Amino acid sequence: MVFFFSVTTPLGIALGIAMSSSYKENSPKALITVGLLNGSSAGLLIYMALVDLLAADFMSKRMQGSIKLQLKSYIAVFIGAGGMSLMAKWA
């Protein structure tokens, strides 16, 4: 893994430098590419948060034993998601 990272990082930097002269920021192809990459990385982050992080917390014995704690936790998750969505509006 370390070898893969140490080899691909300089290659990615070199590729980025080589492509920077032909990159047009507002071209339709560039906008579509950036949109697809942003969407896929956001989807991966949402998946990791919901499946790997929150699912483990919500499946604990403490959480399963208290409906009041479950409701508070769901409300906290929705408030957090709403707050992040609100902040994303200005980003």
What does this entry look like structurally?
- With 91 residues, the chain is an all-alpha fold.
- It has one domain.
- The chain contains four helices and no strands.
Count of individual domains: 1
- Structural class of the helix and strand makeup? mainly alpha
Oligomer: single chain
Mean pLDDT: 89
Order of helices and strands: HHHH
Beta-strand percentage?
under 5%
**Helicity range:** over 70%
Question: Largest beta sheet, briefly?
Answer: none
* Helical stretch tally: 4
List the uncertain runs: none
Q: What radius of gyration results from the CA coordinates? A: 20 Å
Annotation, overall tally of beta strands: 0
GO cellular component, one term: plasma membrane
Main location: membrane
Keywords: Membrane, Transmembrane, Transmembrane helix
InterPro entries: ZIP (IPR003689)
What's the structural blueprint in terms of helices and strands?
Layout: H1 2-19, H2 28-58, H3 61-64, H4 67-90
Quick summary of this structure?
With 91 residues, the protein is mostly helical. It is built from four helices and no strands.
Task: Give short descriptive properties of this protein.
91 residues, mainly alpha, 4 helices
